[in-house]
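HUMAN: Now follow token order:
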Amino acid sequence: MKEENEHIYLTNAPVKKLLLKFSIPCVLAMLVSALYNIVDQIFIGNSSAGTAGIMATTLIFPFTVLALALAQLIGDGCATLFSISLGAKDEKTSNKSVGNAIITTLILGGLLVVLGFILKTAILNLLGASGYNEICQEYTQQYFMIILCGTPFYMFASSMASIIRASGAPGYSMLSTIVGAILNLILDPILIFGFSLGVKGAAIATIIGQILSAILCALYFRKPKLMKLDASSFQLDFSIIKKILKLGISSFITQISIVIITIVANNVVGMIGGVNATDAGGALGIVFKIFAIVLAFSLGVSVGAQPIIGFNYGAKNIKEF
């Protein structure tokens, strides 16, 4: 009865009310993440790593966005398919889409880690690390190796946040993101200054926060709303995966464009910046992080609207909606 009431709510509630319910938690989660990144830069900049440390995180930023792009390819694609299937009362597809998304995200996360270790030097050169001084390159390698270990957790949490939101729990989705970010902020000064770990401390704090977010997301699926997962839900179905990829490709392209722009910018600064390259690149990185605050509002509203639009589309409630 509770799930049926949620279905009716998604169909009949005023659009403004629905948008507020789904978009506000999404905007807040993105804002907290953006603000965390800025504070993180402040801690690193005031540590012994200084500007070289800030530049190291800026160089690795495109790699983390690539991981996010893959996570959203699956997560947003699944969330859309889940909402449409739910609206069409196709429970088999909605449940199977979630199970397949979980397995696919874990596989992609594992592959990215393996490739990261095997192609470490090539990846760092592609990101533009070779254009900066030796200290910056050392910090970049240290930061990359630690961040790489947390990539599967980051991808899982990012992907599942979209699915949890689509299942009618935008508040829990927000909570899983914010709690991880807050833990990150608490650990940053402790590890960076207290243990004198510098850039390594920032990276360790980051992956610990990501692990907590991933655990919270995993715990949600013990008693999820609007879905019933069993063993059959986790059997890979390539027709389902194909639909997920088609629906998630727009989110993937959006993030990949950021990856390309950032890589080009970092490489250009490294090539023409000379002795000032590290300082200039660090400043550029801070601008990228600040711009994320602007994106939080626009993306938060659009992502928050996805479950509403998807459900009503599947329910063929287009004209009324």
Summary: The chain is about 85% helix and 0% strand. The CA atoms of residues 13 and 321 lie 10 Å apart.
